[in-house]
Amino acid sequence: MGNKNCVPELFGGKTDTGSDANDRPRAPKDAETIASPSKQAMKSSTDPEPSSSAPAAAAQQTRKPSTPGALKRMEKREQRRAVTASLPESWRLLEERQRAVIRRVAECERAAGYVGTNRAKKTAWDNARYQGLGGKNYLKRGKRGEAWQKEIENGGEGAEEEDGGAMVERGNEAVADGVGGNGGWYAGKSDEEIVADTVSWLAREMRGMMIYRDYREMYDRALAILEKWRRSFPKSVWIRVVKSGRIAKELNECAPVIKHALDRVAKMPVPADPDERATVIDLCSGFGYLGMFLSEMLDPRKVKMIALVDKQWPMFNAAPKSHQINWDHVYGIDGWDPEWPIKLQTRKDDVKQAGQLRQIEKHVFGKHRGPFIILAVHLCGTLSVKAVEMFNLHENASDLVLKPCCLPGWNHTYTHDTWELGGHCIPVKDVCAKGKWKGNRWIGPPRSHLRHKFATWCDNLYKGIDVAESEKRTEQILIQEEGGHQNTFMFVERERFSVAPGAPSGVYAPRVE
């Protein structure tokens, strides 16, 4: 249907049969009032239609689909009608109202000459869209009813909805270019003002977070690092790093992980052979905020590289595409080369794919000497299983920090009864959740209903970590303070580990032809 952003015609003074004087879709009286012409043609001749003649009604009654495909489509339409008729009245009216809004938006787009998937023309369309409705986030967030009306009245700043959705697997979430949102602390400011005000704004933001209360020393060091980056990064790179506003949230949520890495590396001796320094692996790194701060905070005499692993990175030596993460802050741009105390290296790998796991084995675990510290923060669904599996199958992995983010989707129950992890069997139905993401909106049971299931999920992951009980622990660290329950951290420290690459095993072993 194309972009669902609104246009002036939708909220002008002109009303139609689907809108009232306040520009809100009026609830139809019944399902037939919103039926398309093709659906109206399928109505039974028994329906009262004063303007229809008897011969026409008879012809309409005997008309049948001419192809199997048309028959199948007719059956599906009848099924949808039956489902709609069986819904409670309030649900049915809401569904009809949403359909009316979507249909009206499509009509306005066609009337205004919307150009579909042409990227250049679509950009011009987005720039010229109706102002004050929250930009691209409007309708994408599924605003309806009273929230929809408040958003219009407040110029796009509608009342926030309670996030009651369950965090269920939705794949790797990445920041394509590090710039997001349609307003915020930088609204109405020039690039020069953004560059000048950034660190002070981030400091104010973090004063209300856990990092300021419980990790004050790290907070002070982070501000000094941010000020260093602000002075050394080119303006375009710095704005990309901070303009999304996510850096404060990411730093706050990664504070326990950074603390563990700092303490663990502090205990390590400086190796006589520099090649035996530790390597940090940041799984599903996203933009790479965690690795960036670790590069500045860890001791370069003990750590030689930080690998940022994410499937949204571009291929090596290839320019980033529009849907991929921009890596200018990692490798530099236009003659500027960042001076990272510890080398950052991006890797485009999907850890759910066996072939790409073998590439990680070949180019990371099998190539570098020294211990590996695996950091797995905010891993969605079965990615947490892959992180534990990576740790279990590598004797040169000295540490694992795991913070599960969300539950696996219910679709896994159709293919598996159990998952075996480190000699422990995970019952799939006990840890998977029903529901799905539709755009950016969760359609499923509320978060509170899945609290117990998330605890079961974390408990099974903990049991699947194949080390002694004395070498692992779990902690509840209050990161999400506004109703969230994903506050479980697992810290694993092997007492005995190898510094030399071992023989690959399991899914990391070479495939036998």
From TrEMBL:
Region (Disordered): 1-84
Methyltransferase domain: residues covered: 249-406
Pfam families documented for this protein: Methyltransf_32
Listed Basic and acidic residues bias regions: 21-32, 72-81
Biased composition (Low complexity): 44-59
InterPro entries: Methyltranfer_dom
Name of the featured protein: Methyltransferase domain-containing protein
